[in-house]
Amino acid sequence: MPYAEALLQTRVLDKKCSQVVGIAIPHEKRVKRNATRLRLPLLIAALLCFQSVYPQHTRTFSPRKVQVRFVHSPYADYLFYLLYRNTNDFSSVAQAVPLDAIPTAGGPISLSEVVASSKIKDYRNIYPLLKDYRKPTGLVIFKPMPKILGYGKTLPSYESLISIVRQGESSYPKFLELWEKEVAPQEQKSIEAWQKQNAQCVPLERLQELERVRFPFPSLDVGAIAFHFSGSNNTSPTGVYTRLFDKPNLAFTLGHEATHLIVNKYVGYNWTRHPRAAEAIDAVKKLGGNDFDIEESLCLFMQVTLPQECGDTSKAARVSSQLNDV
Ligand SMILES: [Zn+2]
Question: Per the confidence metrics, is the pTM higher than 0.70?
């Protein structure tokens, strides 16, 4: 794709990033306001990043063969409903399983994603997974492995989380009935489409070739979570997670979320150590942005580029234009 066109698509997507990247909604609203002022610094920053993105044929590169596992879980969906009351296309759940008396969590945490990858079989198995929130020192813990605990600016208290999960326990069986009937078939449909796309294109290998950076993990979970705000990722368990779309597109999800993992500063390619990264970050900071704006622009770019690499036409990539019209 011509470079200018790619940047244009990135910018168009950036305007509606909150539709695509739910975990960054407050941050993206600020970026949206500053979109015009940030355009040039982001372009400079993207240039730095794209030194890695565009293939350099003078060197050989072999992508890591990553074991991809597709997962979904009623507990993961229920937690998006219980913790945040998010329902997406399944708004009837509010009548079928009312939770009005239970407060919501103060900010997004990674519990649902961890649950999806843990494949738990009993509601009581959620409680041990909350132990990381007992005395956290930040949004990320580092031992035994780096793990993202939350996606907002702060974490809800352990006491509030355990209280919400306890209060939600009695309503879970009713939710499960609805999930098995209405939600699971939709998630299974997405997973089947992803499996075909993975076999046809192997998008995670294509992504590594485009970025010329090896994926930092030997395996990756891809989670279908119908009640998810949008998309997210975590380093432990290693996974990317997404809401459902009318047209399942594995390359779209991996282009964005797996790029976040590839450039994760704790376990992946820490692009902020690039010789010219400080220059780019300074330019963005002067206009009210930060280094995450640069990373996010790269991810938005790759969520368009990777599907095209896997055969999507430019017409199919018009998802960006549709989002811009919302
Ligand atoms: Zn993102």
Answer: yes
